[in-house]
Fold each of these.
Amino acid sequence: MHAVQQLYQYRKSLSTKPFNARGKGVNRCQLCQCAMEYCICHLRPKTQSQVGFVLLMHDIEVLKPSNTGRLIADIITDTFAFLWQRTNVEKKLIELLSDKKWQPIVIFPEHYVDDDTEVFVDNLPSNYLSQNVKRPLFILLDGSWREAKKMFRKSPYLKGLPVLSISINRMKNVSDSYIRQASEKHQFATAQVAAQALQLAGEEYNGKLLNHWFDVFNFQYQRSVCQPNAGDEFAVQRLETLVNSQ
């Protein structure tokens, strides 16, 4: 199991009652969270990446079967997952953010960032992408938009880190078929945002791969909760075509 799946099992072990998400009666694969008959684990692609991700996950978010953070960990080996905490922060997280081989970069909209923070909009400077310097470590705040804003404001260990802001214009071409309904126009699935970050880090193929993997999950998840006409029925075919092109 990768980091997100391990965190899910850990958080589940702490629960005193079942988490009743939409489709609570579905017999799910415990790894991909789709219904067993629509399991996508056998389709999971492999790739190599110089990029890493840190998922700071809200306490409830990690239990949601619709969470797409796990899709990042499916593809990007160096994906780390932690339950978000304001003060009682895991030592491993602080050590990771201090590791000299990584350059931590928080992904968040620029209009929430204070004036003292270095912000990049839809680009990363070349020195962040050189093979001779630190590897990009993108930090994603994984929760509802309300939760994410709170996490951004109340995480002192993120202060001083550079921020990558991905504009709505850049995101406008991503899939608009998503298992959750966004309440604000700048909200996108965690995996969709990660795919854009990969492309900005110079990993065009990996960004496309994650987008296609998201579409596969989205379609099969919708089928799992009895919405067969939602999502993209050609998602699996597109994923296989991309993988076979390499």
Amino acid sequence: MSKLARPTFCLLAVLLAGCSTLPRQNTEHTPDWDEHNPEAERGVAVAPPHPAPVESAPKTLPPAETNQPNLPRPPAALPQETWIPLARWSKANGFGLPSILSASPLPAYELRSNQGVLVLHTGSQLAYWDGIELLLGFAPQSIGGLPYAHALDLKTSIHPLLSGGPSPCLRARPVIVLDPGHGGTDAGTRSVVDHRFEKEFTLDWARRLQVLLAANGWQVLLTRSSDFDLALSNRVAFTEDHKADLFVSLHFNSAGASQAEAGLETYLLTPTGIPSALTRGFVDDLAAVFPNNAFDSQNLLLALRIHSALLQVNGHHDRGVRHARFPGVLRGQQRPAVLVEGGYLSNPREARLIADPTYRERLAEAVAGALQDLRSLPAGQ
């Protein structure tokens, strides 16, 4: 796996100055990730300092909840040891010992491999992979003055990052489905600059990306190629019917009346047993197993690859790679799948950029480059 951008001295300065225990709160935008849009307060689900033990037998949701006839077999019994000493785990897996970057206000530790650099803090879910914000499921703990990480974070996030795998299995001519968010009467959010709707920008972004990928030997399909309504279940069924290798849903964000929020967010389905970073008022069933959970590690590596490429375009305005369990376009996918929020139409600066066709072309070029690099990786490694 090609290396993502290394952390800068600025990151170290931020760490030394201390970082917030709580991730940034999600804003008011209600994207078309699920047919049901509750009016409950939206926010970040933060784990307590000492979360309850994880259930040893994850339950499987019935097919009616996922629109898929077959569900993956639930994973083997979850680790009996909930909190694992980071130094012991890292050494046992061949990554060497973690080094301490700062002792206060929140102790910060660094883990390195030939794939990149992970920085995490005891007492905070916020971590950094090669400088990119990444929210862990559980805040690492300091026990006896030593850092401990949750077994599920080690399995689903930390080990895949440091080991660089497994990568998605792609055919010689990969099939990818691009999903332009919204459409028809579901217009999405509206730009504060020119009052155009999100559905128009997502479709244009997808069309531009389609041209670039097709020129590089991809078979590219769009869930919608014009302005019409399309249920989330139909987007999933379309992708399954075409046996796609990858699925990428494209969106733009909004913070409602607030114009200050800005930056890039990329979402992937939450692994079983881990609390979501975003719930939007939905019940966050940690024991749920969805078809897409069979691709947890591949989802993470795909999300980070795309996210890193887009940060080069948007000026590194980073709101992080996050887990969510409710997005209907991700749950039923039987392939690596991610959802990208490419910027805020409620932010005047970003809305002006998004309105510019040249900028949307740059967004398309960034994603195309990230996906093309993915083809050079050994399948499943």
Amino acid sequence: MLHISNKTQGASSHTAEHNRLELVVKRILDIVGSIVLLTIFSPLLFVIVIAIKLDSPGPAIYRRRVFGFQGKTFLMYKFRSMVVNAHEILQQNAKLREEYENSLKIDADPRVTAVGRILRKTSLDEFPQLVNVLRGDMSLVGPRQLGDIELARYGDAQEMVLSVKPGLSGLWQVSGRHAVSFERRVELDLYYVNHQSLWLDLIILLKTPLAVVTGRGAV
């Protein structure tokens, strides 16, 4: 029979309690942070909605179903940066479809609108995800959100990457975004899952503004 000392049990209990406390603090920071950012930037968000509507026909908000914590799906919100029939164009253009299937990105994507290029370069298209953070679907920091195609490429690591909430920002976003390979993106996501802490979240949040300003890896 395996014997577990009281000392070991105490250490395990302390670790579990510490982890629960960090999760509570992280959730409080998510709520407070998303409310503050939405409040501060609300005038800018209103201007973006108008710009999108004037630039091309269609809704200002794009909704995409992605996987979240423990594989639960939810609708992720973004400002629309493409024409409304972007999916149909992709399916009808063999060259674009091949490029996307190979690297899950398209350089100089012709489906991106004029306003959309600015939104993507500045990461402003991601701002509506603050609503997802407020609702609890996402966190301010975490792995990148995953759709069907992306999740399939995580292979045996799928369960691990889905063990935490996806983030508005993360190691991928502050490490070059699309300038790094998808394989590197997987490595960064798994590193975050294995080393997650409030301290790591703080470092990523402090690096995020510089990544946004430089626009490195934006497409």
Amino acid sequence: MNTDATSLAAPPVAATVAPPSLPALIPELPAPGRRTGAGAFAGSSDALALAELARRAAAAKRMIAIVSADPLSAQRLAEEIPWFAPELRVALMPDWETLPYDHFSPHQDLVSERLATMYRAARGECDVLVVAATTALYRLAPPSYLAAFTFFLTQGETLDVDALRAQLALAGYSHVTQVVSPGEFSIRGGLIDLFPMGSTLPFRIDLFDNEIETIKTFDVDTQRTLYPVPNVRLLPAREFPLDDAGRTRFRGRFREVFEGDPSKSALYKDISNGIVPGGIEYYLPLFFDATATIADYLPPTATVALHGDVRGAIDRFWQDTESRYRLLRGDKARPLLPPTELFLPADAFNGAIKSFGRVELGGNAAGPTNALPPVQVDRRADDPLTALKRFIATT
């Protein structure tokens, strides 16, 4: 078989009409409260289109919040958009990866990443926020909670160790002998090991009397220091407060919401004693006077991009959640909050994003790009590359 360069070249086409450029296929940024659509983009062209849209938004000092129909698409977009636009700061809001009303808590790394993402979004430290539709339905801690329990340590400043210990305990950190996971700290004389939420590595703080002499990262497996850093940002250890005020608020709200004797509930007794039971995240509203939504973490000028069949994903989530609630609500020792207390109904979600400019990509609408036709090699044909040559010649 002849496979030289001549045989692979496409035959000349006399009159080929150039397709419209990508920027021409992407809608303009809508004004706050307005909505526009762009149809469906095939393959990874959706990530390319969203990257171009985010570039325009960044030039106008606006954030793009992408609400994807499913978690896999959200993960893919969070990885592909930086490939097309490396200058953009992209943050993914991960899901708890637990089913509603599960009796176990999400992994600490997920909680750490969620808190870091919420903090970055609230402070405008990301250009693109990617979140799955089902994750966007969860009611969240108010932004004021993160602001109150976030603090910084800087090299050269004076540090009161006892005050730091009290502050870390207030933020929900655990005092351990050896730090191995986010939300833990250890104090050994003038050496403080600390693994902040939202950080990929723990930090070792070396004190000279009461002054922070050095701050270095270290490896949790070998416990060896890696490289110095000038400062450390500390986020709360959980998405809800476990200080005295938080536990008091939980007990009061628990008695208001649920009937019967609360002292018979192991959940109530555990929180009263400062113990964190598994699945406590599905009682998060009891720790606050009012909860927030993902929209409360977005700046007013943000643009919300709805990617895929978001409405269908929300409807399926609510069908599954209400089914689990009906199945599990009979346990009087562990009463459940109604789904509307934990998650946003479809109309509430639409109302929360109504004030933002909205762009809809995908769903059932036809889009500006099409999937590739079959171009695979046919080894039985006289010319195995016929399909590829035809596509090149006509495109």
